[in-house]
Design brief:
By secondary structure, this protein is of the alpha+beta class. The chain contains 3 helices and 4 strands, in the order αββββαα. The chain has a 4-stranded antiparallel beta sheet. The longest helix has 13 residues, at about 70-80.
Length: about 110
């Protein structure tokens, strides 16, 4: 409840404050999810593009702001960084990861043609 209150007090239009929780939802054993994170065993924390029974299902709630393949590779990166070492695989563990917006590419200079 306290986390929800904190999230409501943050400015929604500030892209620097974007976290995964703003873009995804997580439920356990969701066959309709877009990605799954294996929760147990030697593959713990491994993302999958195919349904895995008992895995943490990740749904993208804002597909206009987050691409499925990008999320998959982000989850791979987080696993390789050890985010799941010694902890239970839950949506709360990575949902608060802050995402930094990338700077737009500068416009092409028409004088260089």
């Amino acid at each position: 409840m306290q986390r929800q209150m904190q999230r409501q007090n943050q400015p929604q239009d500030d892209p620097a404050m974007t976290t995964l929780a703003d873009l995804i939802s997580c439920t356990i054993d969701d066959p309709q999810a877009e990605l799954w994170i294996i929760r147990r065993g030697p593959e713990k924390g491994t993302p999958s593009k195919t349904y895995v029974k008992g895995a943490l299902g990740v749904r993208i709630t804002k597909p206009d702001q987050l691409i499925r393949d990008y999320l998959y590779y982000l989850l791979e990166h987080l696993r390789n960084q050890g985010i799941w070492n010694g902890v239970e695989v839950t949506g709360d563990r990575f949902a608060m990861v802050q995402l930094q917006p990338t700077a737009p590419a500068p416009p092409a200079n028409p004088d260089q043609n």
